[in-house]
Amino acid sequence: MNIIDVQDLTKIYQTGMRKGGIVALDGVNLSVEHGEIFGLLGPNGAGKTTLFKVLLNITNPNSGSCMISGLAPSDPNSRKKIGYLPENYRFPNHLTGLELLEITIRLYGFNSSEFTENIDNLLELVGMEKWKNSKLKKYSKGMLQRIGLAQAMVTDPDILFLDEPTDGVDPVGRMEIKDIMKKIRDDGKSIILNTHLLSEVEMVADRVAILMNGKVARIGSVEELTSKTSHYEIEADFGHKFVEIPEKFGKRLSISTKSMLVELKELEYINDIIDLIRIKKISIRSVKPLKISLEQSFIETVSGEGTKE
Amino acid sequence: MRGITRDSFAEMIDRKIIFIFGSITLLVIIGVLFTSNISINGFGGDDMKLDDLNQALGNPMMVFFSWFMSFLVFLAVMGTAGLLPSMLVKGRADYYLSKPISRSSLLLNKLLGVWVSYGSMIVVCGLLTYSAIVLVHGGFQFKVVYIFIFSLLSYFCWLAVLFLAGVVSGSQPVSIMSAFIVWVLYKVLSSAKMVQDIISSQFVKTSIDVFYYIIPKNSEFFDISEKLVQGKPVNNWSDFYTTIIVSIILIFGSVYLFKKKNY
Questions:
Q1: Is the CB of A53 inside 8 Å of chain B's CB atoms?
Q2: What is the pTM of this model?
């Protein structure tokens, strides 16, 4: 079941009195399923934060539609089960950490007394119980990030929008936040994650969309995005036997006594290459598509080498 | 009110405005205590007391109290002019707008939250000052409640102006300036209205009339409350009604624009 459905979403920011403007989202289509961690990647200005803002009714789209749990963002009830940690947040710094959580609960229309236990647990989870009575203006960037995460989770939402959640957090804190995200997913909740730290997304996300110039350049599971389908590694007992790869199938990138790396012109040619190896009576141990890191996949997509899937 | 009043109270205390109000009120109370021994020469003999002057001038302490309340409203207007723009800065607007509360509710709750928080402070400072006046000079009048009511209404109308300016500009300085501009326009139009009879052009006369009734005339509220307290008749209620109506229109305008804006 999809909890988020985005259809042909376009957002153009007007710049002064001139006609036209900056196209932040250009016909974006995507969906997020219930219970998945969805990573949103893209270079600066790709439209990631704008997509968050449109989904949360912070900014209005020019055209297209989006639904959250079947409700339009203009309906305040669509945000009833959403927690949001904004990028470049500026929480009301006249409040203490505890007051921020209590007022957040009130803004959701609940009584803070109903969530006392949740507040205590969350403050402990994000390591802020010691600082709960200090004003936010005295917090460091990492502490603000932690209390920001707590305010996003304080009403036990079903969907979390996290915009750069580990920004400014030390490595230990980053690991803790990753663990929190995994725990949230294990509880059957969804996370829409926007971050520049691709290793983070690779570790926790189920599916990923790469945005570029306001468009979805690639979308798929982490597995799909990190497998380079034209490159295959064939593990076999080549020894010193020579296997010629005809040019029409592709080319051999490297070979050793135990493995060979090939780049195919078409995916189906892998069977022909396997046949060629088998004719030479070489026993094959495995044939697998070459894996690349999400970072490599991202860079290839951004630099124009990737394709929309 | 969805925690927004509490948020506004916390903000008011954090901005130390409460101390400014407290200090000014304390100074005024001290001043009032000193007035108990004032003798004024030249009025009905060498030994005329302030109480006698009350009779002669129509309760100057009440006039002073009304002026003091208008000063408290002025301070509150200056103190709250930047509140809405600061709530709608990038990053903080995201926090409020991402919550399951409609934009109209958010804005109206903020308006009421600020009015209740700062209004309470005006009332508390006013009560302390009036208590000091009554303690020193006696003559408690229940009608003083008019001054409190009209002060709060005046502050509410100022907030309507500030909120519209805040929504439209998103800038603290513009918001503060808007209050000054409204006040100056009101003074200019009042003067123009006084000399209206000697203006020959009907178009100019009508324009002055239209603008005069559109512009909020919050300062008139204190004149009305003074007259009510002193038991004098209020000949012209139109300034009061038009200001209230215009303020309500300004609030609707703010809500309409706030719903359309992108943050």
A1: yes
A2: 0.83
